[in-house]
Specification:
The chain contains three helices and three strands. The chain is an alpha+beta fold. The chain has one domain: Multidrug-efflux Transporter Regulator, Chain: A, Domain 2, CATH 1.10.1660. α1 crosses α2. It is globular. The termini are far apart.
Length: 61
């Protein structure tokens, strides 16, 4: 099964936030894990979904 990746713009659109916010989160070491491949930042879909699930549980407390 191929691993699905999201670009910074894909993830920003998914969450309806600016790409700049994701850049800031990376600098602050917040947000989902990311990979930097050839100077390009990508997010594994599995990591994004895990981050969303963790935030959902956090909100339920």
């Amino acid at each position: 099964m191929p691993v699905r990746h999201l670009t910074q713009d894909d993830l920003a659109q998914r969450w309806r936030i600016s790409a700049r916010t994701l850049e800031r989160w990376r600098w602050l070491q917040e947000g989902p894990q990311f990979l930097k491949i050839g100077g390009r930042v990508v997010y594994r879909l599995a990591d994004v979904e895990a981050y969303e699930a963790a935030k959902k549980q956090e909100m339920a407390r």
